[in-house]
Design brief:
Distance between the termini: 30 Å
Helix content: 55-70%
Order of helices and strands: HHHH
Structural class: mainly alpha
Number of strands: 0
Strand content: under 5%
C-alpha cells in the first residue's frame, strides 16, 4: 500500500482544523480532533514513526511553503519529536 494519499488526507484534515476560524469549526472541537489524531499517530511503532517522518519530509519538499511549514512542524506539535521545529529557533532532539 502507498501510504502517501492517506497521510495527505490526514494532514489536510489537521490543517483544516488548525486553520479554520470559530465560525467554521468550534475551537474546542478542533482542538479535541487534533489531539485525538495526534494520539492515534503516536500509537505507531518506532519503525513506522520513522517511515512517517521520512514521508512527511518528502511531502514537505514537494509542497508549497505554507504546507511544507505545517508538515515539518507537525511531528513537533503532536509530541512525536521532542523540542521545537528548526524554523522556530529551537533545537530538535
Amino acid at each position: 500500500m502507498n501510504p502517501e494519499p492517506l497521510v495527505r488526507a490526514i494532514v489536510a484534515a489537521m490543517m483544516l482544523m488548525e486553520e479554520c476560524g470559530p465560525e467554521e469549526i468550534d475551537p474546542d472541537t478542533a482542538v479535541r480532533g487534533l489531539e485525538n489524531m495526534g494520539y492515534e499517530i503516536l500509537q505507531l511503532s518506532r519503525d513506522d514513526r520513522g517511515e512517517l517522518l521520512e514521508l512527511i519530509e518528502r511531502m514537505a519538499r514537494d509542497s508549497d511553503s505554507h504546507t511544507a511549514d505545517f508538515l515539518r512542524a507537525l511531528p513537533f506539535s503532536i509530541g512525536m519529536v521532542d523540542g521545537l521545529p528548526p524554523e522556530s529557533g529551537g533545537e530538535a532532539d
